[in-house]
Amino acid sequence: MTLSASQLGVIREALHLGAEEASRSLSKWIQRPTSITFDSFEQLTLDEAVGVLGDPQDPLCFCAMEMTGHLEAHLVLIFDDASGLALADLLLGQAKGTAIGWNEMETSAALETTNIMCCAYLNAMARALPAGDAHDLVPSPPRFGRDFAQSLIECALMDQIVASDQVMLARTAFRIDAALVNWTLLFVPGAGALERVIEP
Amino acid sequence: MGDFGVAEEGVIKTLLGSCIGLTLYDRRLRLGGMAHIVLPASRSASDPPGKFADTAIPALLRELEALAGALVRTEARMAGGANMFGTQTTDTVGRRNIEACERLLESLRIPLVGRDCGGAAGRRMILELSTGRVTIEIVGREPFEI
What we know:
By secondary structure, chain A is α+β, with helices and mostly antiparallel strands. Helices cover 44% and strands 30% of the residues of chain A.
């Protein structure tokens, strides 16, 4: 199903609010000025979607959460090793460059950040949508992994691919201490989830 | 993604998440091909053939026979079908893709001689045309052959 311009407008507004709320939560969590800004919400073909994370061959880290309830979605925080380990250093109160691999503490820092940020994001989004009710959203525990960019996108979009040749996803940009960091937060709605929320 | 190709030399490779990579190789003629299968069954005649198990395998065979100018006797290898996020849909689709490929290969009497399917990790699948060797690469692990 293709969304109308007015439906897309409603979704974009909800995504803006989600990003703002996630930004506030992240600032509080890492105790630094941060800014998460809604970057784009696109309907893409599969071939176009494969390129959204840059080179499909690149190995990237991800923390993924699944949300069930009236707004089914995947939220996937994606970052390269350097950006993720810098976050771990920040949260663990150690000098930048101390974390050099994904051990228990570093992974835990990334997962907890994802949990806090993504729950804030989706709760705000759910409140902003016409059939919104943040109370029936059930988040899964976040999962951490490292994988090829294309493999990651393929798995994230599978629910939509089953239903349609077009996929929908939203991206955000991150700034910490006013500097752009190499993180991407993908919001991938379940097949038909947005249509159900907009036209209950 | 959802595409296929055949060749006589060099390598053919693809990146897989929940999709299935399927190779067919003729050892005598030293030529082969690979399909990146997304879903088990096509929805309409206008769908790209490489995307679906039921159309990709026959299309791959046709292309190989056109390349060889003769009938081919192939063996198959299969990889992919990962469920990275542990979701029900991906699990179901991955399983159905694998089953659809197995069924078709059996009906075409093509032996499935190697496989690495399921799990949570994405894969890079590489077919070397000179040898028919298929290598799987997974982030953080040593490459291995199937």
